[in-house]
Amino acid sequence: MRAFDDGILALPFYEPEHRELAQRLTNWCDEHSELWNARTDPEKTELNVIRALGEDGWLSPEADFRSLCLVREALAYADDLADYAFSIQALASIPLLRHGSPSQKERHLPALTRGERVVAFALSEEQAGSDVAAIALRADQTPGGYVLNGRKAWVANGGIADLYCVVARTGEGPGALGLTAFLVPATTPGLHVREKIAVIAPRALAHLAFDNCEVPSDSVLGRPGHGFVIAMDVLDRFRMTVGAAALGFARRAADAALSRSADRPIYDGRLIDLPTIRATLADTEVKLNAAALLVARAAWELDNGRRFARHSSIAKLYATESAQEIIDAALQIFGAAGLVSDSVTERLYRQIRSLRIYEGTSEIQRAVIAQSLDLRRAE
Ligand SMILES: Cc1cc2nc3c(=O)[nH]c(=O)nc-3n(C[C@H](O)[C@H](O)[C@H](O)COP(=O)(O)OP(=O)(O)OC[C@H]3O[C@@H](n4cnc5c(N)ncnc54)[C@H](O)[C@@H]3O)c2cc1C
């Protein structure tokens, strides 16, 4: 497998340890491809991948964002479920890592890092997706803690997670100001999987119900009323990694399209001799370069303690939208063969779609980017 562009990795955005990590990752994916190539039950595949990633130290909480992006790029190139397994564990660990108390970290982090336990991030509800401030799941205070009542929707790892990070309404203030994040073990009485959701690229995804679900006071992450801040802190950081995963999918499609163009005999020549095909391959190369540079910049800004949120949105928006175009163009180059069930192009065509929706839709990224524009430049 060759998931990376060595020319991009050689740029000063990256340190020698990132280049070394990219090489180890490539080897790891080659050595572990049987984990995802078996194409058995997606939930089992994910659990096996998380365990293997944990055993080999890929779930280390010390990783910087350039490393996280490289891991997602490589795993997405290798397989959608490999990336999904890694990414949800990493995403849902961030609230604990950044806002957990020492005792919460001590209790939960070691098993998550070893891949022995699985975590999920339950923010969305049916009527509160982009509009996070509309969250309705209630957490009412009791003498010993809180009681949770309501529903969560579209929870990645829902049903296979051992621990949920849940954002609920505690009412310290109106809208976004009245939310709190909780750590809720899956075994808590009253917490159920309401429905498992089948989507175009099969994966562990579920709606959850909380019926009089009691949690102690020390399950609050950060402080009461800070749930929205924690959710945005997680999403601002993680969006760039969605761009990195999109880049991995897009590179896989681009490589497949290039091989097909070079191999396919047509009109006494090969597909790659046709000017329109060459133009498509050239456009793909431009988009791959642009996406890789935007992801690298966003991660570099974050790792260097600079303002990064707008770059995270820019990277996610461009990399996911362009990956969709690259994969569509690759499928077109394959002709009818590109549509065959379980072929690389058919799988990628289904797998890329959700990246333009989760962790903030493309429209939400545009709103974030527009908000960040410096209006003084227009004066
Ligand atoms: C595979 C997958 C995994 C997911 N995993 C998780 C998870 O682990 N945890 C979790 O909490 N959630 C998860 N989600 C949910 C995801 O975050 C939401 O689907 C997403 O935030 C969009 O919300 P929505 O689906 O309710 O769409 P809506 O918010 O209803 O949006 C509908 C449409 O309106 C547009 N729109 C909304 N607001 C604006 C605006 N201000 N300006 C312009 N257009 C706007 C949107 O872009 C979209 O096109 C997952 C979703 C998917 C598909």
From TrEMBL:
**Domain of life (superkingdom):** Bacteria
Single Gene Ontology MF annotation: flavin adenine dinucleotide binding
Domain spans labelled Acyl-CoA dehydrogenase/oxidase N-terminal: 16-116
Flavoprotein as UniProt keyword: yes
Keywords per UniProt? FAD, Flavoprotein, Oxidoreductase
Q: Which Pfam families match?
A: Acyl-CoA_dh_1, Acyl-CoA_dh_M, Acyl-CoA_dh_N
Q: Which InterPro entries would you find in this protein's record?
A: Acyl-CoA_DH_CS (IPR006089), Acyl-CoA_Oxase/DH_mid-dom (IPR006091), Acyl-CoA_Oxase/DH_mid-dom_sf (IPR046373), AcylCo_DH-like_C (IPR036250), AcylCo_DH/oxidase_C (IPR009075), AcylCoA_DH/ox_N (IPR013786), AcylCoA_DH/ox_N_sf (IPR037069), AcylCoA_DH/oxidase_NM_dom_sf (IPR009100)
Required cofactor names:
FAD
Q: Which residues form the Acyl-CoA dehydrogenase/oxidase C-terminal domain?
A: 225-373
Query: Into which family does the record put it?
Result: Belongs to the acyl-CoA dehydrogenase family.
Q: What is this protein called?
A: Acyl-CoA dehydrogenase
Domain Acyl-CoA oxidase/dehydrogenase middle: from-to ranges: 120-213
Q: Does the keyword Oxidoreductase apply?
A: yes
